[in-house]
Write a structure and sequence with these properties.
Order of helices and strands: HHEHHEEHHH
CATH class of the largest domain: Mainly Alpha
CATH architecture of the largest domain: Orthogonal Bundle
Distance between the termini: 20 Å
CATH topology of the largest domain: Arc Repressor Mutant, subunit A
Shape: elongated
Number of domains: 2
Structural class: mainly alpha
Mean pLDDT: 83
Largest sheet: 3 strands, antiparallel
Radius of gyration: 20 Å
Number of strands: 3
Helix content: over 70%
Low-confidence stretches: 153-157
């Protein structure tokens, strides 16, 4: 995974279960049994029924673990032990990004810069208008890039 492109990292981390699997392994010395991972995932997702746990198990075995194995991030042996083989600095950065339920940083800064620009216009201070306008344009560009990137990754899935 040394040269994995951003698209590949985004694709791998676009799914919450894959993100949580990688986080679990990173927080547990790089390894874990499938049984422990399943218990962790079930707790995170609030699954208390055997049907819910089976659904998580099937998705891990049939989809998520194979994708992560093909990418060279993890390896699972025949005993159900999963080992984290490699994470790139980019992957760690993406894992630290805002989780679902929160707004993306680009939108936060766009909102903040909008408030700054409106306040500057209200106060009529030219230096503040210039600075907040630059901040606003930068935030708007970042938001557009973020939206395009996100939509292109969702289309590939």
């Amino acid at each position: 995974m040394g040269g994995m492109k951003d698209e590949g990292i985004h694709y791998l981390l676009a799914n919450r279960r894959r993100r949580n699997l990688i986080k679990y392994l990173m927080n547990n010395g790089g390894e874990g049994s499938l049984k422990d991972i399943l218990a962790y995932m079930s707790e995170l997702e609030g699954c208390t029924t055997s049907k819910g746990r089976k659904s998580i198990y099937v998705s891990l075995i049939q989809t998520h673990i194979p994708k992560l194995e093909r990418s060279g991030v993890i390896k699972m042996d025949s005993n159900g032990n999963v080992v984290l083989l490699h994470t790139s600095p980019d992957m760690k950065l993406y894992l630290e990004a805002v989780e679902s339920g929160n707004i993306p940083w680009s939108y936060y800064y766009l909102g903040l810069s909008s408030i700054m620009l409106l306040s500057s216009l209200f106060l009529g201070e030219m230096w503040a208008i210039v600075v907040s306008s630059i901040f606003f344009m930068s935030s708007a560009a970042h938001s557009v890039i973020q939206a395009r990137t996100t939509s292109s990754f969702l289309e590939k899935m």
